[in-house]
Every structure is written in C-alpha cells, then in structure tokens.
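Recall the central idea of this unit: under ordinary conditions, the amino acid sequence of a chain determines the structure it adopts. In this exercise we apply that idea directly, starting from the sequence alone.
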Amino acid sequence: MRDEPDETELRRPLDIRLEGQIDWLTLNRPEKLNALDDALVAALNRYFLDLQDRPSTRIVVIRGAGRAFCSGLDLSEMRTAEAHTIPSLVAKQKAVSDLILAMRRAPQPIVSLVHGAACGGGFAVALASDIRLAGKSARMNAAFVHVGLSGCDVGVSYLLPRLVGASVASELMLTGAMIEADRALATGLVSRVVEDHDLLDAAAPLLSAMLAVSDLGLRMTKEGLRMGLDAPSLDAAIALENRTQILCAASGSMFDRISSSF
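Accordingly, the structure predicted from this sequence is:
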C-alpha cells in the first residue's frame, strides 16, 4: 500500500508515481479542475522531454485529480497587462504546443484516463495520447472559439480529424460544442467508456498486454503508427514497416519468443 502523500506532494502541480515499468501522471490541481497553468505545463514538458532517455519506462498513464481530467488553459494567468504582450503570448503558446509535440514524439505509449471535463488544452492532451479511455462523466471540447480564438490550436486541427474524420472534427472545432462520452465512443475518439470508478480496472488489461510484448516492438509500433499517419503513399508506409520489422527481428526478441513457443 502506498504511503499517504505529504503536504509538499499535495502542492505539486504534477504528481508522478513510478510503478514498475509504468509511470502514472496525475494532473494535480483539483481546486482548478487541473487547469494548465505555467507551472503544470512546465512540469509536463520536463517530464516528457526526459522520457526520451528513460528506457525503464515502457508506458505512461495520465489522469486528473478530483472532478476533472483537465479544464484547459488557466485563464486566471491572462489577467495582467504583461500577459497580453506579444512575447508573453508567444512563450505561453509555445510551451503548450511543445508539450503536445513532446507527447507525440515520446517513444512510450501514452494512455489517458479521461473523466469530467477535458477542454481546450486538456482536450489536446487527451488527443495527443495514444489510447483514451473515458469515464461516463467525460465531456470534451475544443473550447478555444469560446474565448475569441481560432478552434485550431495546439495540435487539435491535426489530431482530431485523424481520429473522428473531417465532418465531426469541423463540427466540434467550429462550434466548441461538448462531446459526451457515448458519442466520443461512437466516433472513435475513445476506445472504451466505463463508470468513472472503473477506469483503473479498464486500463489494467491494456497495460498488461502492452507490457507482455517486446520493448522494441512496442516502441516501434508507436513510431510506425505516428509516421504512417503522415506517410505520402502506401509505398512509403510499407518501406517504413519493412525497416521497423528488420530492426525488431535483428534485436533477437522475435527469435527468443518463437523458440520458447516450441
């Protein structure tokens, strides 16, 4: 059983727990519905950049403390005149955008357990994950248009159409409308919908299945999926797959598994 977190841990915007080969990330600003302030974005960026050189971590799971996954950008930080200057806006925009890029480039599969609100930047974090499981309370939207911005922000215009198709993506991004858990499942935005309190149990078999495959195979599959989405042709996709399979076979893990099965 885990020890109770001390007061310092409770104040951390990002709680990171290492359990074997799985890192559990908890967005830890429950009093703000885990809104993305500068400190939380910085902590997430540091974590995902460091992942590139941490082969001991095979899977990352993201969840939110309290009543929500992540309500989006913390707009309370935008109330000062300095926050509206071009340099400040550029820095804030780049920090969140860099986070989405770091998540997609991370070699480890990322699983998001979404409950409650996942809005704006929080929606982008969920989209940048490889697998999304939703609690029945999950409500997601591209909230940017509601605050006078473009609905195309921090990777959403790229990621969302590839998950749900152009028509549904256009509807959600042009209106900022909420998509509830059941429709998210029907459109392929999430893999599964369960009761909120069952999210950990729903994730368990997925995590076990990924841990059961070879480390290199797991990482190369994520890379292949990411590169395949942008492949200019079937020929290019197959060329990448051929390279990946040779690398995995040459590592020896395939032959070890074949030999052990006889």
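Residues 1-9 have pLDDT under 50 and may be disordered.
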